[in-house]
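Journal club side-thread
Mid-discussion, someone asked how the predicted structure for our own chain would compare to the paper's figures. Pasting it here so we can look after the session.
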Amino acid sequence: MPTIRRHRWRVLKIDCTDSCAQAPRFHMAIMALDADTLPDDPATLRALLRAAHDEIERLRGFIAALNRNRFGTRSERLDPDQLNLGLEDAEQELAASAEAVERRIAPAVRRASKRNLGNLPAHLPRIERVIDLDDKACPCCKGELHRIGEDVAERLDVVPAQFRVLVTRRPKYACRACEGTVVQAPAPGHVVEGGLPTEALVAQVITSKYADHCPLYRQAGIYARQGIDLDRATLADWVGRAAWYLIPVYDRLRAELMASPKLFADETTAPVLDPGRGRTKTGQFWAYACDDRPWGGTAPPAVAYVYAPDRSKARPRAHLAGFRGVLQVDAYAGYKALGKAGEVTLALCWVHARRRFYEIAAAGPAPIAEEALRRIAALYEVEADIRGHPPEMRAAARNERSKPILDAFEPWLRVNLERVSGKSPTAEAIRYALSHWPGLTRFVGDGRIEIDNNAVERAIRPQALTRKNALFAGSDGGAQHWACLASLIETAKLNGVDPLAYLTVTLEALAAGHPINRIAELLPWAYNPAPKGD
Protein backbone atom coordinates (compact mmCIF):
# COMPACT_ATOMS: atom_id res chain seq x y z
CA MET A 1 0.00 0.00 0.00
CA PRO A 2 1.27 3.53 -0.68
CA THR A 3 2.59 5.46 2.30
CA ILE A 4 1.43 9.08 2.37
CA ARG A 5 3.10 11.67 4.59
CA ARG A 6 1.65 15.19 4.86
CA HIS A 7 4.13 18.08 4.43
CA ARG A 8 3.93 21.82 4.32
CA TRP A 9 3.07 23.74 1.12
CA ARG A 10 0.42 21.13 0.31
CA VAL A 11 3.04 18.78 -1.10
CA LEU A 12 2.57 15.03 -0.76
CA LYS A 13 5.64 12.83 -0.64
CA ILE A 14 4.61 9.44 -1.95
CA ASP A 15 6.64 6.21 -1.99
CA CYS A 16 4.82 3.67 -4.11
CA THR A 17 5.51 0.20 -5.48
CA ASP A 18 3.27 -1.24 -8.13
CA SER A 19 3.74 -4.97 -7.48
CA CYS A 20 1.43 -6.01 -10.28
CA ALA A 21 3.52 -4.26 -12.95
CA GLN A 22 6.74 -4.99 -11.04
CA ALA A 23 7.61 -1.35 -11.46
CA PRO A 24 10.61 0.10 -9.58
CA ARG A 25 10.04 2.18 -6.50
CA PHE A 26 9.79 5.85 -7.19
CA HIS A 27 9.61 9.01 -5.12
CA MET A 28 7.34 11.78 -6.36
CA ALA A 29 5.89 15.09 -5.28
CA ILE A 30 2.34 16.03 -6.23
CA MET A 31 1.66 19.73 -5.99
CA ALA A 32 -1.72 21.27 -5.22
CA LEU A 33 -3.27 18.10 -3.73
CA ASP A 34 -4.64 17.91 -0.20
CA ALA A 35 -4.80 14.58 1.67
CA ASP A 36 -8.18 15.57 3.14
CA THR A 37 -9.78 15.83 -0.29
CA LEU A 38 -8.18 12.82 -2.00
CA PRO A 39 -10.66 10.20 -3.25
CA ASP A 40 -10.88 6.91 -1.37
CA ASP A 41 -11.20 4.71 -4.42
CA PRO A 42 -7.85 2.88 -5.07
CA ALA A 43 -8.36 2.89 -8.84
CA THR A 44 -8.88 6.65 -8.80
CA LEU A 45 -5.79 7.14 -6.66
CA ARG A 46 -3.73 5.04 -9.05
CA ALA A 47 -5.00 7.14 -11.97
CA LEU A 48 -3.99 10.34 -10.15
CA LEU A 49 -0.57 8.90 -9.39
CA ARG A 50 -0.03 7.92 -13.00
CA ALA A 51 -1.01 11.44 -14.12
CA ALA A 52 1.40 12.95 -11.59
CA HIS A 53 4.14 10.62 -12.75
CA ASP A 54 3.57 11.68 -16.37
CA GLU A 55 3.73 15.32 -15.33
CA ILE A 56 6.98 14.81 -13.44
CA GLU A 57 8.60 13.00 -16.37
CA ARG A 58 7.50 15.77 -18.71
CA LEU A 59 8.97 18.43 -16.42
CA ARG A 60 12.19 16.47 -16.04
CA GLY A 61 12.55 16.34 -19.79
CA PHE A 62 11.76 20.05 -20.01
CA ILE A 63 14.42 20.90 -17.42
CA ALA A 64 17.00 18.67 -19.10
CA ALA A 65 16.34 20.34 -22.45
CA LEU A 66 16.61 23.82 -20.93
CA ASN A 67 19.83 22.91 -19.12
CA ARG A 68 21.31 21.55 -22.33
CA ASN A 69 20.18 24.65 -24.21
CA ARG A 70 21.69 26.97 -21.59
CA PHE A 71 24.77 25.14 -20.41
CA GLY A 72 25.59 22.62 -23.12
CA THR A 73 28.28 23.08 -25.74
CA ARG A 74 27.25 24.99 -28.80
CA SER A 75 26.95 21.81 -30.84
CA GLU A 76 24.47 20.45 -28.27
CA ARG A 77 22.35 23.56 -27.95
CA LEU A 78 18.87 23.51 -29.37
CA ASP A 79 17.54 26.19 -31.61
CA PRO A 80 14.56 27.82 -29.83
CA ASP A 81 12.24 26.55 -32.55
CA GLN A 82 13.65 23.02 -32.21
CA LEU A 83 13.12 23.23 -28.46
CA ASN A 84 9.52 24.32 -28.98
CA LEU A 85 8.89 21.39 -31.31
CA GLY A 86 10.04 18.94 -28.65
CA LEU A 87 7.95 20.63 -25.98
CA GLU A 88 4.89 20.56 -28.24
CA ASP A 89 5.16 16.78 -28.55
CA ALA A 90 5.56 16.37 -24.79
CA GLU A 91 2.59 18.61 -24.11
CA GLN A 92 0.44 16.71 -26.61
CA GLU A 93 1.27 13.41 -24.89
CA LEU A 94 0.51 14.89 -21.48
CA ALA A 95 -2.84 16.25 -22.70
CA ALA A 96 -3.82 12.82 -24.01
CA SER A 97 -2.88 11.19 -20.70
CA ALA A 98 -4.79 13.81 -18.73
CA GLU A 99 -7.87 13.32 -20.86
CA ALA A 100 -7.73 9.57 -20.29
CA VAL A 101 -7.50 10.11 -16.53
CA GLU A 102 -10.36 12.63 -16.60
CA ARG A 103 -12.59 10.06 -18.27
CA ARG A 104 -11.78 7.36 -15.72
CA ILE A 105 -12.12 9.18 -12.41
CA ALA A 106 -15.42 9.99 -10.73
CA PRO A 107 -17.13 13.24 -11.79
CA ALA A 108 -17.02 14.52 -8.20
CA VAL A 109 -13.22 14.64 -8.15
CA ARG A 110 -12.61 15.84 -11.71
CA ARG A 111 -10.84 19.12 -12.16
CA ALA A 112 -13.01 22.12 -12.79
CA SER A 113 -12.87 22.95 -16.49
CA LYS A 114 -10.88 26.00 -17.44
CA ARG A 115 -13.20 28.75 -18.65
CA ASN A 116 -12.02 30.86 -21.56
CA LEU A 117 -15.04 33.17 -21.69
CA GLY A 118 -13.90 36.69 -22.51
CA ASN A 119 -10.38 35.67 -23.50
CA LEU A 120 -11.02 35.56 -27.22
CA PRO A 121 -10.51 38.80 -29.21
CA ALA A 122 -13.59 40.99 -29.36
CA HIS A 123 -13.21 41.75 -33.07
CA LEU A 124 -13.78 38.12 -34.10
CA PRO A 125 -17.29 37.44 -35.45
CA ARG A 126 -19.56 35.50 -33.09
CA ILE A 127 -21.82 32.81 -34.51
CA GLU A 128 -24.25 31.84 -31.78
CA ARG A 129 -26.22 28.66 -31.37
CA VAL A 130 -28.75 27.93 -28.63
CA ILE A 131 -29.05 24.43 -27.24
CA ASP A 132 -32.46 24.41 -25.57
CA LEU A 133 -34.83 21.88 -24.09
CA ASP A 134 -37.33 20.26 -26.39
CA ASP A 135 -39.79 19.83 -23.53
CA LYS A 136 -40.11 22.73 -21.07
CA ALA A 137 -42.43 20.89 -18.69
CA CYS A 138 -41.27 20.14 -15.15
CA PRO A 139 -40.21 16.48 -14.93
CA CYS A 140 -41.86 16.25 -11.50
CA CYS A 141 -45.23 18.08 -11.67
CA LYS A 142 -45.42 18.72 -15.41
CA GLY A 143 -45.82 22.44 -14.77
CA GLU A 144 -44.29 25.02 -17.08
CA LEU A 145 -40.57 25.75 -16.47
CA HIS A 146 -39.37 29.37 -16.45
CA ARG A 147 -35.90 30.56 -17.48
CA ILE A 148 -33.57 31.51 -14.60
CA GLY A 149 -30.30 31.99 -16.47
CA GLU A 150 -27.95 30.36 -18.93
CA ASP A 151 -24.45 28.97 -19.32
CA VAL A 152 -22.36 30.54 -22.08
CA ALA A 153 -19.24 28.96 -23.55
CA GLU A 154 -17.02 30.29 -26.33
CA ARG A 155 -14.81 28.11 -28.53
CA LEU A 156 -12.37 29.26 -31.16
CA ASP A 157 -13.33 27.94 -34.60
CA VAL A 158 -11.59 28.21 -37.96
CA VAL A 159 -12.74 28.50 -41.54
CA PRO A 160 -9.97 26.94 -43.69
CA ALA A 161 -8.24 29.23 -46.17
CA GLN A 162 -10.40 29.35 -49.24
CA PHE A 163 -9.61 30.42 -52.77
CA ARG A 164 -12.05 32.61 -54.61
CA VAL A 165 -12.16 34.17 -58.05
CA LEU A 166 -12.51 37.93 -58.37
CA VAL A 167 -14.30 38.73 -61.62
CA THR A 168 -13.68 42.24 -62.94
CA ARG A 169 -16.14 43.55 -65.51
CA ARG A 170 -15.45 46.80 -67.40
CA PRO A 171 -18.46 47.83 -69.48
CA LYS A 172 -17.78 49.49 -72.83
CA TYR A 173 -19.80 52.49 -73.98
CA ALA A 174 -20.29 53.91 -77.44
CA CYS A 175 -21.97 57.04 -78.76
CA ARG A 176 -24.75 56.57 -81.30
CA ALA A 177 -24.04 59.96 -82.79
CA CYS A 178 -20.24 59.60 -83.11
CA GLU A 179 -18.81 56.82 -85.18
CA GLY A 180 -15.94 54.85 -83.64
CA THR A 181 -16.17 56.34 -80.15
CA VAL A 182 -15.78 53.69 -77.45
CA VAL A 183 -15.26 54.63 -73.82
CA GLN A 184 -14.26 52.25 -71.03
CA ALA A 185 -12.85 52.60 -67.49
CA PRO A 186 -9.10 51.85 -67.41
CA ALA A 187 -8.04 48.43 -66.21
CA PRO A 188 -6.40 48.40 -62.79
CA GLY A 189 -2.69 47.70 -62.67
CA HIS A 190 -1.43 44.40 -61.32
CA VAL A 191 1.91 42.99 -60.29
CA VAL A 192 1.38 40.08 -62.67
CA GLU A 193 -0.26 41.69 -65.69
CA GLY A 194 -2.56 39.32 -67.53
CA GLY A 195 -1.90 36.62 -64.95
CA LEU A 196 -3.98 34.74 -62.43
CA PRO A 197 -3.11 36.20 -59.02
CA THR A 198 -4.31 39.20 -57.14
CA GLU A 199 -1.78 41.15 -55.09
CA ALA A 200 -3.19 39.47 -51.97
CA LEU A 201 -2.32 36.02 -53.33
CA VAL A 202 1.18 37.11 -54.32
CA ALA A 203 1.64 38.56 -50.84
CA GLN A 204 0.45 35.27 -49.35
CA VAL A 205 3.03 33.31 -51.34
CA ILE A 206 5.84 35.67 -50.27
CA THR A 207 4.80 35.66 -46.62
CA SER A 208 4.54 31.88 -46.54
CA LYS A 209 8.03 31.53 -47.99
CA TYR A 210 9.97 34.21 -46.10
CA ALA A 211 7.99 34.65 -42.87
CA ASP A 212 6.68 31.11 -42.38
CA HIS A 213 9.67 29.42 -44.08
CA CYS A 214 7.50 27.29 -46.39
CA PRO A 215 9.26 26.64 -49.74
CA LEU A 216 7.34 27.14 -52.96
CA TYR A 217 7.09 23.45 -53.80
CA ARG A 218 5.35 22.84 -50.46
CA GLN A 219 2.97 25.71 -51.11
CA ALA A 220 2.16 24.22 -54.52
CA GLY A 221 1.23 20.99 -52.74
CA ILE A 222 -0.99 22.85 -50.27
CA TYR A 223 -2.83 24.59 -53.11
CA ALA A 224 -3.22 21.29 -54.97
CA ARG A 225 -5.25 19.92 -52.05
CA GLN A 226 -7.87 22.55 -52.87
CA GLY A 227 -7.84 21.63 -56.54
CA ILE A 228 -5.69 24.59 -57.65
CA ASP A 229 -2.89 23.50 -59.98
CA LEU A 230 -0.08 26.03 -59.51
CA ASP A 231 3.37 24.92 -60.57
CA ARG A 232 6.35 25.86 -58.41
CA ALA A 233 7.85 27.74 -61.35
CA THR A 234 4.67 29.81 -61.62
CA LEU A 235 4.89 30.78 -57.96
CA ALA A 236 8.56 31.65 -58.42
CA ASP A 237 7.63 33.92 -61.32
CA TRP A 238 5.13 35.76 -59.12
CA VAL A 239 7.69 36.22 -56.35
CA GLY A 240 10.28 37.56 -58.80
CA ARG A 241 7.86 40.10 -60.27
CA ALA A 242 6.82 41.25 -56.80
CA ALA A 243 10.46 41.65 -55.78
CA TRP A 244 11.04 43.89 -58.78
CA TYR A 245 8.21 46.16 -57.64
CA LEU A 246 9.46 46.19 -54.05
CA ILE A 247 13.12 47.02 -54.77
CA PRO A 248 12.55 50.82 -54.43
CA VAL A 249 10.97 50.29 -50.99
CA TYR A 250 13.91 48.08 -49.99
CA ASP A 251 16.40 50.68 -51.23
CA ARG A 252 14.64 53.36 -49.19
CA LEU A 253 14.73 51.08 -46.13
CA ARG A 254 18.50 50.71 -46.51
CA ALA A 255 18.89 54.47 -46.92
CA GLU A 256 16.93 55.05 -43.71
CA LEU A 257 19.20 52.63 -41.88
CA MET A 258 22.35 54.29 -43.19
CA ALA A 259 21.10 57.61 -41.82
CA SER A 260 20.84 56.13 -38.32
CA PRO A 261 23.49 57.15 -35.77
CA LYS A 262 23.96 53.54 -34.65
CA LEU A 263 23.71 50.15 -36.35
CA PHE A 264 24.15 46.51 -35.52
CA ALA A 265 25.80 44.29 -38.14
CA ASP A 266 26.31 40.56 -38.58
CA GLU A 267 26.47 38.04 -41.37
CA THR A 268 25.49 34.44 -42.11
CA THR A 269 26.02 32.01 -44.95
CA ALA A 270 23.63 31.77 -47.89
CA PRO A 271 24.00 28.65 -50.08
CA VAL A 272 23.38 29.54 -53.72
CA LEU A 273 23.09 27.14 -56.64
CA ASP A 274 26.13 27.24 -58.93
CA PRO A 275 24.89 25.57 -62.14
CA GLY A 276 28.27 25.61 -63.88
CA ARG A 277 29.79 23.40 -61.19
CA GLY A 278 26.71 21.32 -60.45
CA ARG A 279 26.65 22.21 -56.75
CA THR A 280 26.07 25.13 -54.42
CA LYS A 281 28.45 27.93 -53.57
CA THR A 282 28.54 29.79 -50.29
CA GLY A 283 27.33 33.37 -50.46
CA GLN A 284 26.73 35.69 -47.52
CA PHE A 285 23.77 37.50 -46.07
CA TRP A 286 24.85 40.66 -44.28
CA ALA A 287 22.33 42.04 -41.82
CA TYR A 288 22.24 45.68 -40.73
CA ALA A 289 19.77 46.52 -37.99
CA CYS A 290 18.63 49.46 -35.92
CA ASP A 291 16.75 49.01 -32.65
CA ASP A 292 16.65 51.95 -30.23
CA ARG A 293 13.90 50.54 -28.01
CA PRO A 294 16.27 49.44 -25.20
CA TRP A 295 17.07 53.09 -24.48
CA GLY A 296 13.67 54.55 -25.31
CA GLY A 297 14.56 55.83 -28.78
CA THR A 298 11.72 56.84 -31.08
CA ALA A 299 13.19 55.62 -34.40
CA PRO A 300 11.32 52.57 -35.71
CA PRO A 301 13.28 49.30 -35.49
CA ALA A 302 14.40 47.94 -38.83
CA VAL A 303 16.68 45.40 -40.45
CA ALA A 304 18.02 45.15 -44.00
CA TYR A 305 19.71 42.11 -45.46
CA VAL A 306 22.24 42.46 -48.24
CA TYR A 307 23.41 39.52 -50.30
CA ALA A 308 27.00 39.21 -51.45
CA PRO A 309 28.68 36.28 -53.21
CA ASP A 310 31.60 36.26 -50.75
CA ARG A 311 32.77 37.46 -47.31
CA SER A 312 35.55 39.78 -48.38
CA LYS A 313 36.42 42.87 -46.35
CA ALA A 314 35.24 45.05 -49.21
CA ARG A 315 31.61 44.01 -48.71
CA PRO A 316 30.79 45.83 -45.46
CA ARG A 317 32.71 48.88 -46.68
CA ALA A 318 30.51 49.00 -49.79
CA HIS A 319 27.30 48.31 -47.87
CA LEU A 320 28.04 50.97 -45.26
CA ALA A 321 29.22 53.69 -47.65
CA GLY A 322 28.05 56.99 -46.22
CA PHE A 323 27.30 55.63 -42.75
CA ARG A 324 28.92 57.59 -39.94
CA GLY A 325 28.12 56.46 -36.46
CA VAL A 326 28.47 53.60 -33.99
CA LEU A 327 28.66 50.14 -35.51
CA GLN A 328 28.07 47.28 -33.05
CA VAL A 329 29.59 44.06 -34.36
CA ASP A 330 31.69 41.01 -33.65
CA ALA A 331 35.45 41.04 -34.21
CA TYR A 332 35.39 40.25 -37.97
CA ALA A 333 38.36 41.86 -39.72
CA GLY A 334 36.15 43.58 -42.30
CA TYR A 335 34.56 45.68 -39.56
CA LYS A 336 37.93 46.38 -37.95
CA ALA A 337 39.12 47.94 -41.20
CA LEU A 338 36.23 50.40 -41.08
CA GLY A 339 37.12 51.32 -37.52
CA LYS A 340 40.79 51.82 -38.30
CA ALA A 341 39.91 54.07 -41.22
CA GLY A 342 37.88 56.26 -38.87
CA GLU A 343 34.71 55.72 -40.90
CA VAL A 344 32.78 54.26 -37.95
CA THR A 345 33.12 53.87 -34.21
CA LEU A 346 33.21 50.18 -33.33
CA ALA A 347 31.41 48.75 -30.31
CA LEU A 348 32.03 45.04 -29.78
CA CYS A 349 29.95 42.22 -28.37
CA TRP A 350 30.36 40.73 -24.90
CA VAL A 351 28.53 37.55 -25.95
CA HIS A 352 31.45 36.65 -28.21
CA ALA A 353 33.96 37.30 -25.43
CA ARG A 354 31.90 35.35 -22.91
CA ARG A 355 31.45 32.37 -25.23
CA ARG A 356 35.15 31.50 -25.11
CA PHE A 357 35.20 31.36 -21.33
CA TYR A 358 31.95 29.45 -21.27
CA GLU A 359 33.25 26.70 -23.56
CA ILE A 360 36.27 26.26 -21.30
CA ALA A 361 34.14 26.10 -18.14
CA ALA A 362 31.70 23.66 -19.73
CA ALA A 363 34.52 21.21 -20.52
CA GLY A 364 35.45 20.73 -16.86
CA PRO A 365 36.75 22.50 -13.74
CA ALA A 366 38.23 25.83 -14.83
CA PRO A 367 38.51 28.37 -11.98
CA ILE A 368 39.74 31.23 -14.16
CA ALA A 369 37.02 30.81 -16.78
CA GLU A 370 34.36 30.42 -14.10
CA GLU A 371 35.47 33.61 -12.37
CA ALA A 372 35.47 35.45 -15.70
CA LEU A 373 31.88 34.28 -16.29
CA ARG A 374 30.83 35.56 -12.86
CA ARG A 375 32.29 39.00 -13.60
CA ILE A 376 30.59 39.14 -17.01
CA ALA A 377 27.31 38.08 -15.39
CA ALA A 378 27.62 41.06 -13.05
CA LEU A 379 27.75 43.35 -16.10
CA TYR A 380 24.56 41.79 -17.45
CA GLU A 381 22.80 42.31 -14.12
CA VAL A 382 23.37 46.04 -14.53
CA GLU A 383 22.01 45.90 -18.08
CA ALA A 384 18.85 44.14 -16.92
CA ASP A 385 18.22 46.91 -14.38
CA ILE A 386 18.63 49.80 -16.83
CA ARG A 387 16.86 48.38 -19.89
CA GLY A 388 14.33 50.84 -21.25
CA HIS A 389 15.79 53.87 -19.45
CA PRO A 390 17.02 57.02 -21.26
CA PRO A 391 20.63 57.06 -22.52
CA GLU A 392 21.82 59.55 -19.90
CA MET A 393 20.49 57.40 -17.06
CA ARG A 394 21.98 54.25 -18.59
CA ALA A 395 25.39 55.88 -18.99
CA ALA A 396 25.33 57.17 -15.40
CA ALA A 397 24.39 53.75 -14.02
CA ARG A 398 27.10 52.07 -16.06
CA ASN A 399 29.74 54.51 -14.85
CA GLU A 400 28.65 53.92 -11.29
CA ARG A 401 28.22 50.13 -11.39
CA SER A 402 29.77 48.62 -14.54
CA LYS A 403 32.95 50.67 -14.75
CA PRO A 404 34.33 49.45 -11.38
CA ILE A 405 33.72 45.86 -12.51
CA LEU A 406 35.60 46.46 -15.76
CA ASP A 407 38.38 48.41 -14.05
CA ALA A 408 39.03 45.39 -11.84
CA PHE A 409 38.42 42.87 -14.62
CA GLU A 410 41.17 44.03 -17.01
CA PRO A 411 44.13 43.80 -14.57
CA TRP A 412 42.76 40.49 -13.30
CA LEU A 413 42.82 39.17 -16.88
CA ARG A 414 46.41 40.36 -17.38
CA VAL A 415 47.58 38.72 -14.15
CA ASN A 416 45.96 35.41 -15.04
CA LEU A 417 47.30 35.53 -18.58
CA GLU A 418 50.79 35.24 -17.07
CA ARG A 419 49.76 32.21 -15.00
CA VAL A 420 48.52 29.97 -17.81
CA SER A 421 50.19 28.41 -20.80
CA GLY A 422 50.27 30.79 -23.74
CA LYS A 423 48.81 28.13 -26.04
CA SER A 424 45.96 27.11 -23.74
CA PRO A 425 42.29 27.88 -24.53
CA THR A 426 42.17 30.04 -21.40
CA ALA A 427 45.03 32.19 -22.70
CA GLU A 428 43.28 32.53 -26.07
CA ALA A 429 40.05 33.62 -24.38
CA ILE A 430 41.89 36.19 -22.25
CA ARG A 431 43.85 37.54 -25.20
CA TYR A 432 40.62 37.91 -27.21
CA ALA A 433 39.07 40.03 -24.45
CA LEU A 434 42.19 42.16 -23.88
CA SER A 435 42.89 42.75 -27.57
CA HIS A 436 39.33 44.02 -28.03
CA TRP A 437 39.02 45.86 -24.71
CA PRO A 438 38.35 49.38 -26.13
CA GLY A 439 35.45 48.07 -28.23
CA LEU A 440 34.12 45.88 -25.44
CA THR A 441 34.03 48.77 -22.96
CA ARG A 442 32.68 51.43 -25.31
CA PHE A 443 29.13 50.80 -24.13
CA VAL A 444 29.92 52.23 -20.68
CA GLY A 445 30.03 55.88 -21.70
CA ASP A 446 27.26 55.84 -24.31
CA GLY A 447 23.78 54.86 -23.16
CA ARG A 448 22.68 54.19 -26.73
CA ILE A 449 25.13 51.30 -27.14
CA GLU A 450 24.15 47.79 -26.09
CA ILE A 451 26.43 45.39 -24.27
CA ASP A 452 26.14 42.83 -27.06
CA ASN A 453 25.08 42.25 -30.64
CA ASN A 454 22.03 40.12 -29.86
CA ALA A 455 19.58 42.44 -31.65
CA VAL A 456 20.99 41.61 -35.07
CA GLU A 457 21.66 37.97 -34.21
CA ARG A 458 17.94 37.62 -33.51
CA ALA A 459 17.27 39.15 -36.92
CA ILE A 460 19.58 36.59 -38.54
CA ARG A 461 17.73 33.61 -37.05
CA PRO A 462 14.65 33.69 -39.37
CA GLN A 463 16.91 33.56 -42.40
CA ALA A 464 18.63 30.50 -41.00
CA LEU A 465 15.21 28.80 -40.83
CA THR A 466 14.38 29.77 -44.41
CA ARG A 467 17.80 28.51 -45.49
CA LYS A 468 17.25 25.21 -43.69
CA ASN A 469 13.88 24.60 -45.39
CA ALA A 470 14.71 25.93 -48.85
CA LEU A 471 18.27 24.46 -48.81
CA PHE A 472 19.64 27.07 -51.25
CA ALA A 473 18.81 30.05 -53.44
CA GLY A 474 18.54 29.29 -57.14
CA SER A 475 20.87 32.09 -58.26
CA ASP A 476 22.59 35.26 -57.12
CA GLY A 477 19.57 37.19 -58.37
CA GLY A 478 17.25 34.93 -56.37
CA ALA A 479 19.36 35.52 -53.26
CA GLN A 480 19.08 39.28 -53.81
CA HIS A 481 15.28 38.94 -54.03
CA TRP A 482 15.40 36.90 -50.83
CA ALA A 483 17.31 39.71 -49.11
CA CYS A 484 14.82 42.34 -50.33
CA LEU A 485 11.66 40.49 -49.37
CA ALA A 486 13.00 39.22 -46.04
CA SER A 487 14.08 42.76 -45.10
CA LEU A 488 10.57 44.14 -45.53
CA ILE A 489 8.95 41.18 -43.76
CA GLU A 490 11.28 41.21 -40.74
CA THR A 491 11.05 44.99 -40.41
CA ALA A 492 7.27 44.71 -40.45
CA LYS A 493 7.44 42.12 -37.69
CA LEU A 494 9.78 44.29 -35.62
CA ASN A 495 7.18 47.06 -35.79
CA GLY A 496 4.26 44.82 -34.88
CA VAL A 497 2.85 44.91 -38.43
CA ASP A 498 1.24 41.88 -40.07
CA PRO A 499 3.56 41.11 -43.04
CA LEU A 500 0.73 39.70 -45.18
CA ALA A 501 -1.49 42.74 -44.77
CA TYR A 502 1.46 45.10 -45.30
CA LEU A 503 2.66 43.38 -48.48
CA THR A 504 -0.85 43.22 -49.90
CA VAL A 505 -1.46 46.95 -49.51
CA THR A 506 2.05 47.84 -50.66
CA LEU A 507 1.90 45.71 -53.80
CA GLU A 508 -1.52 47.14 -54.66
CA ALA A 509 -0.16 50.68 -54.30
CA LEU A 510 2.93 49.96 -56.42
CA ALA A 511 0.90 48.24 -59.13
CA ALA A 512 -1.42 51.28 -59.20
CA GLY A 513 1.55 53.58 -59.87
CA HIS A 514 2.48 54.94 -56.44
CA PRO A 515 4.77 57.99 -56.96
CA ILE A 516 8.44 57.18 -56.50
CA ASN A 517 9.03 60.45 -54.64
CA ARG A 518 6.60 59.25 -51.95
CA ILE A 519 8.10 55.79 -51.54
CA ALA A 520 8.75 56.44 -47.82
CA GLU A 521 4.98 56.17 -47.32
CA LEU A 522 5.29 52.46 -48.14
CA LEU A 523 7.89 51.57 -45.50
CA PRO A 524 6.65 48.95 -43.03
CA TRP A 525 6.37 51.29 -40.03
CA ALA A 526 4.24 53.72 -42.07
CA TYR A 527 1.60 51.06 -42.74
CA ASN A 528 -1.75 52.00 -41.22
CA PRO A 529 -4.00 48.94 -40.92
CA ALA A 530 -7.75 49.22 -41.16
CA PRO A 531 -9.55 48.79 -37.81
CA LYS A 532 -10.24 45.14 -37.06
CA GLY A 533 -13.74 44.11 -37.88
CA ASP A 534 -14.04 46.43 -40.89
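Post-session note: Residues 3-107 form one domain.
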